[in-house]
Amino acid sequence: MIKMPHSLTVAALSLTAFVAAPFAAASESCVQQAETIRTAQQNVLKLKAERDALVPKVEDAGDAWENNQAMRNFSTEQARQADSSRAAYEDLKARLRAVEADLQEKASNANARVNAYNTHCATKD
Q: Which residues are in coiled coils (predicted)?
C-alpha cells in the first residue's frame, strides 16, 4: 500500500530534481553535459531492461498465486503454498513498482538534461 505522505515526499523530491537538473546542467560545459546525458541514457536503458525482465516474472508469480489460491481449501500445506506464492507475488510487484518509479524519475531527469543541452549547446541553423 502506498501511503500519501511518502508519495508527496517522493513527488516533491522528484520535482526538485527535475527543476534543478537544467540549472545544474547549464553550469557544466557542453562536453560535460553531453557525457552526463550519455551516462543518464545508459542508466535509463539499464532500468528499462530490468523492468522489462521483471514484468513476465510478476505475471508468472501472479498466475502461480491464482493457481495455488484455487487449491487453498484442500489442505493446510496447500494453504501455506498459496500464502507463500502470494508473498512472492507481492514482493515482485513491489520491486517492479520501485524499478518503474526509478525509471520514470531517471528518464525525466535525462530529458531535462537533454532540453538544457539543446537550449545552451545545440547549434542553431
A: 82-113
